[in-house]
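Cast an eye over my tokenised protein here and flag anything odd:

===
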Amino acid sequence: MRKERFLFYYLWLFLLMTVGAFVWQMFLPGIAESMSVWGISKGWQTEIALWNVGLDIGILLTLVKRNVEYAKVLTIISLSLCILLGGHHLIYALTQTTNANTSLHWAGAIEVLLIGGGAGIFAIVKSDCFQRN
């Protein structure tokens, strides 16, 4: 089996995560209000949801074409987003000093940073992403 398959597995996982995020950000924005310290901002949540759609279009194209070079680039981008966004959630989860609900931040830290970030690192290492052909 080719090592690049790990990149495609990871992109399927990331696609699932971003489609899920799109659904709750676009159609259930009250989740952010009730389960985070950020409150609600329907306009910003809609913009983030639409960014997810843009990224997902690139991922779907890569998965359909089975293009390894695209998969490498999108895996690095997706991993970067997982570390940055998941780390952002973790900071809010750990530093919140009021009695606000931090459930969304803990879920974001676990799903995005640990699962998304961990799986991305695993995919990059197992696929020898940075090896010259």
